[in-house]
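Input sequence (113 aa), recorded before submission:
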Amino acid sequence: QVQLVEVGGGLVQPGGSLRLSCAASGFTFSNFAMSWVRQAPGEGLEWVSSINTDGSSTHYASSVKGRFTISRDNAKNMLYLQMNSLKLEDTAVYYCAKDIQTRGQGTQVNVSS
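Predicted structure, token format:
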């Protein structure tokens, strides 16, 4: 079955960086566009970024554009999110998603001074 496992979250100060990773299995990873979404405390799911099948096209929410970079390694079935210049409002659980109904268990990112 499809499995998506995110790691890399943690506590970071404003202005800091984190790199999230997502290990995918149970499907042909290279055939699917992938996304990162997040859910802040008390809020709904927010789309963060997407990448096409070969990594040649990426898209970002305006709130993270210029600070976050999505990438993938199809040989390793891995999806990444490099997050720089983190802000307090980036605090959320981050999920990698194959589609709107399929995402991992999430990894917590806390940005706090």
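Checked by second reader. DSSP finds no helices and eleven strands in the chain.
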